[in-house]
DNA sequence: AAGTGGTCTAGACCACGAG
DNA sequence: TCGTGGTCTAGACCACTTT
């Protein structure tokens, strides 16, 4: 299956002309967004194959009955996602395979969004405490001020995978234990109108202490993966600070980086 | 230093009206980009403080002698970077402190862009070899086809930090050993006209083998941080596949995630 | 009611890359 | 030379938030 050279045969997608984009002008969903979604779906389903040209923007806008800026906005959003490439004098083409789903920041979502079927969560601790120095600094509150501490043990298939310790500003959220075990922290935040925007993470490794080993069913000294994270909402306010420890034998971070042009 | 509530006093930046944005219409640099840079600089230097309103887009465009879409494009780019927040009916304001520099994908750049003063690199191996199965799959070449293998030892302050093993498609690059040690892989790629676009990474941990321990000046069984990465250029073509091992006692990944709206 | 950003239009000219 | 995307304009109407 040699796929070495193959100089990106630039064929205009034959299906594109017959592809019917259903644009609903009465819908509250923006036109550029409708178009972007349908293009993305066409790429995902292989209707638009890697290397296919999209046809120039002017023609496309005429055929769709949209203005060129609107079509550009749709295309641009897919370029940002890494699905399309624009080249002056050439055209817009579907990116050369690979790298399908950018994984939606999996490490962040996996951790905050419990749910699913395999993974379960046991809430070990959930109470208000005075903030230690590092917590206070991360959450932007006074040292000794009240914060909520949340300790959870995460398991998959009955086996422990991670120890999660999170701190939240006091009163940010109603942390019902039962819902936490079934719903996950991230969904509870979202349901409370908190929009996550960015997070700063540090990922490292170290040997397990005796207590960690006992809780995670590892031997003392086993390699653990550690992660510290501070998450911010869309106003830049810190909403979560956490220290997580993972069994390296059962867990790894898997994520996609996009280089900003 | 309690900075708890402080309900984001929405004050229009007093300095904004006197801020002189120097827009050069004869410059090849796009106007929206010039504006974005100057806004970013103003935010960075504290001229625009967190929470400050930017003033509405229409006024701003009139005052700058630009059209509204152009001003919007500048603002949007800073919103994407997480420096500004837009709210309907409210306005655009500087994000509420924290999270200044998104670190420019440091883990990727740190690794590829050697240079600097502290870190040095020793090239241990640099030759063409037949691709093993995992390498072939990652780089999209035939199994057994020729690829370039590159093994490097990275040191800071004379101490070993990491073992880097990278595979590149054969003939992609002129890998001059001397330049590799001083310049770094990433810069050499960029100089060859290769534009990095995205990368897929897996970060984990494990205990050091005897050989790794010897090379990294650790004890056998010490916790190591591991990373596998496949990097792609802007056409989606894989340009690098690597397996890296770091001394956990001296290295951690530090990066910023932006949640895509 | 007033003000804000969100979307959309119908043009225009330019710079770059391919042939 | 010609076609492509890159940039820019000067409007318009709408939805949402605050007062």
TrEMBL record, chains A, B:
UniProt-listed Pfam families: GntR (PF00392), UTRA (PF07702)
Molecular functions (GO terms): DNA binding; DNA-binding transcription factor activity
One GO BP annotation of this record: negative regulation of DNA-templated transcription
Positions of the HTH gntR-type domain: 29-97
Parts forming coiled coils: none
Cross-referenced PANTHER family: GNTR-FAMILY TRANSCRIPTIONAL REGULATOR, MANNOSYL-D-GLYCERATE TRANSPORT/METABOLISM SYSTEM REPRESSOR MNGR-RELATED
The name this protein goes by in its record: GntR family transcriptional regulator
